[in-house]
Amino acid sequence: MSMHNHAHKNDTTSRIAWAFFLNVSFTIIEFIGGWLTNSTAIMADAVHDLGDSLSIGLAWILGNLSERESTSRFSYGYRRFSLLGALINGIVLIIGSIWVLSEAIPKLLNPEMPVVEGMFGLAVLGVTVNGYAAFKLSKGKSLNEQMLNWHLLEDVLGWVAVLVVSIILMFIEWPILDPILSIAFTIFILINVLRNLWATTKLFLQATPNDDTAITIRESLLSFAEVKEIHHLHFWSLDGEHHVMTAHLELSKLIEPTRQIQLKTEIADRLSGFGLEHTTIELEFPNELCRDE
Questions:
Q1: Is residue 158 within 8 Å of 41, Cβ to Cβ?
Q2: pTM for the complete prediction?
Q3: Does the pLDDT of residue 272 top 60, yes or no?
Q4: Is the separation of the CB atoms in 157 and 135 below 8 Å?
Q5: Confidence tier at 265 by pLDDT (50, 70, 90)
Q6: 145 with 9: CB under 8 angstroms?
Q7: Which of 75, 143, 145, 234 is buried most deeply by CB count within 10 Å?
Q8: Angle in degrees, CA 172, 178, 184, rounded to 5
Q9: In this structure, is the dihedral angle defined by the CA atoms of residues 73, 78, 83 and 88, taken in order, positive or negative?
Q10: Using N-to-C axis directions, what is the helix angle for 3-37 and 116-137, rounded to 10°?
């Protein structure tokens, strides 16, 4: 690894670590503040921030882990651990969201006025903390940092909504606004979590990451004059970004070793545009039995 890449990786790691400690500290303050102010809206945002803290923490840990070399036990390396992290994060958020809904829905029937001054103060702090964390991560260029930055910007908007509601409640006694806002937050979180969890589960079960790409790869391999048919074509993903492909190519005729080497080179060039992390291609000659049948 060059000095420049090493320094860049250290910068990325330190920014993510910094954002994690800031976010997890503020999440603890939110849960305490939500309980003290009797605000389910703040509790709902605390659950959202808990999810972001988990995302940032896992990105920090797994970002370091994914750079480790492959071993005899983990022959593909450690990139797949990020999918496990995403599954854990999704499950925690679903449990947290169900808890918030169980608190907020009864309050629709019997709304209680939150401590508005405390709600306002936490909202100002929330906009400031999340806004500053988003600003710090906006300097990063890595995919992890960009994704986490969007999470933090969502948090900023959430706290702006809490801020607006707290100002309204200072002048008008509409306590029902608090549970309504918390339910709206929670439904928004659940929709996003369930969508991401389904996408992650499919990748975890080794589903094809992109059907169109799989079709294009197949057509690309079939375009060689010597390739008669393709079977056992498997296209799956380690972590949603780094993909793996294996295939058996049935040849239409016997070809000399020199042409075999040339064909393999041409196949490698053709597949290079798909950004595959690992590829395994097996050439099968006419009338040769496939050992995987």
A1: no
A2: 0.73
A3: yes
A4: no
A5: very high
A6: no
A7: 145
A8: 130
A9: positive
A10: 170
